[in-house]
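Priority: medium. Attachment 1 of 2:
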């Protein structure tokens, strides 16, 4: 039967409506994949952008973020041990990968890597591939890298009439500048403006120890705290903190918040170390800053701290978990990590052209990757780090000598690093 124009029009409309309803139903059938992290996913641009891109490329899946704040690693371990309501993917710092893998809390990824990522694994920076593995197997995929640079508060330097150093500055230059920028503004005999601030946790000073030729600990669990070169670096930092009062104490720094950038943003610390994520904090706070490489010690090097993603042991849908993690490790996702300020890319094939156009001194962030050595992550490293921080607390205040603090660490180190505690 011949269709009239009106009937043809109605038929097309009905078909279009049916197709629209079918597509809507398909969209509603997206499978949710839960990803857990310590970040606020409602405000984190990196997580928001990663979710949008993943769902664009995977129309059958939807990322649902979950958050655990303080005590993240311990709470996740308890959750995995309980075995119920496990997320599909968890964010994990590189120093936690060994203990999670050793406890059987995260899945071995060798099967997935061999089938689906073997060639791309070769594209990662060597420090990244090393951080993702334990005992010869892969247990995680990369989120990003943090390698450090030095940030200078331009307003404070201009007010003091002190020139910001060039890229080849040294420890001596750093010490002289820190002293010049330390000031007693109210005349009470105590500084209320400081040259530099760093939080006294392991990632805050390990690179200083390594630049002196010492270190913190080896990857196989041997303490390096007792090395003469390590002691030399600790004395250098302690003298600036105690004798020159060029660094605020932790109590003084916390007047300006708990973030490492707090004193810097408040205009009270002229220099602070940080990675790419620091630029986001400073930009959001409208702080004018300049970036330079870290000052050079006996060795010119940096530490690379890798954050990662893993599949909790017992996750019910590991194949879906892998799809998410493979995307997070992809060139596209690593491009998002760079441009959103999440961290430096884990692979050198990411295009940095636009990133370098934003600021000339962004080049020092990219350059830092070339001199970066892996942050040490032995099996019982987390317990060792906690012990070192506790033994060093009074040292940073000048109430304990470097030698006494080091001796206390070395006495406990063998048992802690071998798991006998």
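Attachment 2 of 2:
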């Amino acid at each position: 039967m011949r269709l009239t124009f009106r009937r043809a029009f109605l038929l097309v409309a009905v078909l279009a409506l049916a197709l629209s309803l079918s597509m809507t139903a398909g969209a509603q059938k997206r499978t949710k994949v839960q990803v857990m992290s310590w970040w606020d996913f409602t405000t984190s641009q990196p997580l928001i952008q990663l979710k949008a891109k993943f769902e664009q490329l995977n129309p059958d899946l939807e990322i649902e973020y979950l958050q655990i704040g303080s005590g993240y690693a311990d709470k996740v371990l308890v959750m995995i041990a309980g075995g119920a309501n496990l997320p599909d993917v968890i964010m994990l710092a590189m120093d936690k990968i060994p203990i999670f893998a050793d406890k059987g809390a995260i899945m071995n990824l060798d099967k997935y890597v061999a089938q689906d990522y073997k060639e791309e694994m070769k594209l990662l920076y060597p420090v990244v591939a090393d951080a993702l593995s334990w005992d010869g197997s892969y247990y995680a995929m990369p989120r990003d890298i943090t390698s450090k640079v030095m940030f200078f508060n331009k307003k404070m330097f201009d007010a003091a009439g002190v020139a910001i150093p060039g890229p080849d500055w040294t420890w001596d230059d750093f010490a002289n500048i820190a002293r010049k920028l330390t000031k007693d503004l109210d005349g009470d005999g105590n500084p209320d403006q400081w040259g530099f601030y760093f939080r006294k946790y392991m990632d805050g000073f390990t690179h200083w120890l390594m630049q002196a030729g010492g270190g913190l600990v080896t990857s196989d669990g041997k303490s390096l705290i007792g090395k003469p070169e390590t002691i030399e670096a600790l004395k250098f930092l302690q003298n600036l903190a105690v004798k020159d009062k060029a660094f605020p104490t932790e109590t003084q720094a916390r007047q300006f918040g708990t973030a490492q950038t707090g004193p810097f943003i408040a205009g009270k610390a002229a220099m602070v170390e940080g990675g790419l994520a620091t630029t986001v904090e400073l930009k959001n706070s409208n702080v004018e800053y300049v970036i330079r490489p870290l000052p050079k010690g006996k060795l010119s090097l940096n530490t690379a701290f890798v954050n990662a993603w893993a599949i909790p042991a017992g996750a019910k849908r590991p194949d879906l978990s892998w799809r998410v993690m493979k995307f997070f490790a992809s060139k596209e996702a690593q491009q998002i990590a760079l441009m959103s300020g999440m961290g430096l890319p884990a692979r050198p094939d990411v295009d940095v052209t636009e990133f370098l156009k934003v600021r000339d001194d962004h080049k020092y962030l990219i350059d830092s990757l070339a001199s970066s050595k892996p942050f040490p992550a032995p099996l019982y490293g987390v317990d060792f780090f906690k012990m070192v921080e506790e033994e060093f607390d009074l040292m940073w205040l000048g109430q304990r000598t470097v030698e006494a603090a080091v001796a206390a660490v070395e006495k406990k180190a063998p048992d802690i690093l071998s798991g006998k505690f």
